[in-house]
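Action item from last week, closing it out:
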Amino acid sequence: MKYCNFFILFAFIAMIFFSSCNQQKENDGEWVQLFNGEDLSGWIPKIAGYEVGENFGNTFRVEDGMIKVRYDAYDSLRNRFGHLFYQDELSNYKLRVEYRIVGEQCPGAPAWAYKNSGIMVHGQTPGSMERDQDFPTSIEVQLLGSDSLVQRTNMNVCTPGTNIVMNQVLILDHCTNSSSDFYFGEDWITAEVEVRGNEVIYHVINGDTVLQYNQPQLDERDATYARLIDLNGGDKMLHKGTISLQSEGHPIDFRKVALQLLD
């Protein structure tokens, strides 16, 4: 009986310990809204061909409590890809956005950009980009839609100016598909990215983890490498960077952009 009571007590203490650990993990930083629902305070636009801060054609705008990406001022896209940067660089965090891809593609946008947008993480700063640079050197979490014309998985990863490691192998391909389902229509989708410095990055869509990879790093083959590795203290491994929302030629809405800092 004495040993039975001991094991009951041990089990009770273990339950409290693991419950406490799980609670600590759940409380690992509060979720903070990065978008106030009223304006683009704290965000910086950079559109290819324009100076930092110049929001050509009101491409990034706030309407109906949402960040909207629109092209009504464009006669043709003409490779004027844009990015809306959050003002701070980040290292260990979760980023959660609620988005929907809507409407018709901008005239002149490339075929691969159809129902295509993205979230850039571990990116260079907008001030370090060249005036005509299309995309920041970064890790791109693709936001992709499907319809009768095209079907593809969602939250794939692309690597403008970067590389990643998967299963201990350096991946030199520009894009790698996730394991997600196809997403049709204009429903709201919740996309989450968990970034752990240079350790690991997870892609999560509507609660399901569909991709993970390790050691994001600068690509020695890229034209930005020599300049950015100097800015990175001589280290090609990416431990932190900017986040940005993409303008790639198809209208998209973001109704929530939330951040949770991690230890």
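Closing note: Residues 31-261 form a domain with the Jelly Rolls fold (CATH 2.60.120.560).
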